[in-house]
Amino acid sequence: METYEFLPAIQRLSLIADMVRKTDVEGVIDHLGVAEAVAPVFDPDAYHYGSERLVAIRGFLDDALKFKRSCERYGTRIAEAEQTARAKRLELADRKRDGSDATPA
Questions:
Q1: What is the count of structural domains for the chain?
Q2: What pTM was computed for the model?
Q3: Angstrom distance (rounded) from CA 74 to CA 31
């Protein structure tokens, strides 16, 4: 990856993380659990033919939930780091404007 591609990649991943954080993955997993419980009773043939797909969907949702939790955990840390960096930039700009370029001890 080239240096100029780094920031856009991070921005795209941040957008994806934000969408995932806002998605009710837990709710979808709950609904899938209900479907897995009642499907064999109401339509055993359909369940038999669709069970592999349900297993794949369950695996995908489990991974999505792990990703969501990771996004929540790191999203907070990234936001805090951005606020700190923004404050430091403002402080530096104030110093330059006031003519005191010296960094604090």
A1: 1
A2: 0.64
A3: 27
